[in-house]
């Protein structure tokens, strides 16, 4: 196991270097630069009458006077020293900017993930046990409708219904303007109210997908010979589904769990923009639009590392759910 993990980590490091190198080359090839974004953004730096010497000095300040390969190795050298550099489009280091957004993203994504799993597993088991019945078909119809409903449409309708019409829930943001003046219970309640709509939008598509995923794998497993043997021995249907069938359908489910790890931190750009949620998705979009190379690369490094870590975690969990798998 240890040799396998070390080998996978070595391959992951090489993969990470290739990914970040390709991404850095692509963003440097994009039209525009941090300098053009700054000049177009207003303020003193946007004065179109700046001299050639000032322009060249600003290019040197942003590191644009070097070829992208040299720029990438400068960035990589800083990463190896633990320095992600400072952002170009806003004050502060890249590490601090990412750290300030992680809590809001995790609040949204982890809550959504827990709800999706808690609801999709019993729904998937129910759909398997009642396969072909009218209630099961009705459940599938609702799930298909949810899966096909665009998030931005659902978000706008929910805002109209619960904020404009009913005035029950806040429209956007993480907290209210008087959040600091509230009691501890009042702060928790205010945070809960602000989370309801974005968490709902974040959850419903995952719920529909996970339920269908579990049912599809369960229907394949319940056709196996050992399930028929368990039924012949008089094992109850609940125990067959939860102990025998579900346990042996965990391998594809574990793969899905491993792939959700980067999604926990990447956020949802559309949802965060609609609800003005200060998460990682909105930060990533702003960094790309402003050509903030260090911030983009810091986020790419985080997301790529989590993707590779999630795949490694899924491979290790295979051996936990299926003893037949060996890493030798």
Automatic annotation (TrEMBL):
What UniProt keywords are attached to this protein's entry? Cell membrane, Membrane, Transmembrane, Transmembrane helix, Transport
Cross-referenced InterPro entries: BPD_transp_1_N, MetI-like, MetI-like_sf
**Statement: the UniProt record of this protein carries the keyword Hydrolase:** no
Any one Gene Ontology cellular component term annotated for this protein:
plasma membrane
The UniProt entry's GO biological process terms, in alphabetical order, are: transmembrane transport
**Superkingdom of this entry's organism?**
Bacteria
Which membrane topology term applies here?
Answer: Multi-pass membrane protein
Subcellular locations according to the entry: Cell membrane
Question: Membrane spanning segments where?
Answer: 9-27, 102-129, 141-162, 191-210, 250-275, 295-321
Answer whether the UniProt record assigns the keyword Transmembrane to this protein: yes
Major place of residence = membrane
State the PROSITE patterns in the record.
ABC_TM1, PROKAR_LIPOPROTEIN
Q: Where is the ABC transmembrane type-1 domain?
A: 102-314
The record's listing under PANTHER family reads: DIPEPTIDE TRANSPORT SYSTEM PERMEASE PROTEIN DPPB-RELATED
Similarity field:
Belongs to the binding-protein-dependent transport system permease family.
The protein depicted here goes by the name Dipeptide transport system permease protein DppB
Species per Swiss-Prot/TrEMBL record: Blastopirellula retiformator
From the broadest rank down, the organism's phylogenetic lineage runs: Bacteria, Pseudomonadati, Planctomycetota, Planctomycetia, Pirellulales
């Amino acid at each position: 196991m240890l040799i396998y993990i070390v080998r996978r980590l070595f391959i992951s490091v090489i993969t990470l270097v290739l990914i970040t190198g390709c991404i850095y080359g692509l963003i440097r090839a994009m039209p525009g630069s941090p300098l053009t974004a700054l000049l177009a953004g207003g303020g003193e730096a946007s004065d179109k009458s700046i001299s050639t010497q000032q322009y060249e000095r600003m290019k040197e300040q942003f590191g644009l006077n070097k070829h992208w390969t040299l720029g990438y190795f400068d960035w990589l050298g800083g990463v190896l020293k633990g320095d992600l550099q400072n952002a170009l489009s806003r004050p502060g280091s890249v590490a601090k900017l990412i750290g300030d957004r992680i809590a809001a993203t995790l609040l949204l994504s982890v809550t959504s993930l827990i709800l999706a799993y808690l609801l999709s597993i019993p729904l998937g088991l129910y759909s398997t046990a009642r396969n072909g019945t009218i209630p099961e078909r009705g459940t599938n119809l609702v799930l298909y409708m949810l899966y096909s409903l665009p998030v931005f449409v659902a978000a706008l309708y929910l805002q109209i219904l619960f904020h404009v019409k009913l005035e029950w829930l806040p429209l956007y943001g993480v907290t209210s303007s008087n959040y600091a003046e509230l009691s501890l219970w009042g702060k928790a309640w205010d945070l809960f109210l602000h989370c309801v709509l974005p968490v709902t939008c974040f959850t419903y598509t995952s719920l529909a997908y996970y339920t269908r995923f579990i049912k599809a794998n369960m229907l394949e497993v319940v056709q196996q010979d050992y399930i028929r043997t368990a039924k012949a021995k008089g094992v109850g249907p609940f125990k067959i589904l939860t102990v025998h069938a579900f346990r042996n359908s965990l391998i594809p489910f574990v793969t899905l769990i491993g792939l959700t790890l980067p999604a926990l931190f990447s956020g949802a750009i559309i949802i965060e923009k609609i609800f003005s949620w200060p998460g990682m998705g909105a930060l990533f979009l702003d960094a790309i639009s402003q050509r903030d190379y260090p911030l983009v690369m810091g986020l790419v490094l985080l997301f790529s590392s989590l993707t590779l870590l999630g795949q490694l975690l899924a491979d290790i969990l295979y051996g936990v759910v299926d003893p037949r798998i060996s890493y030798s």
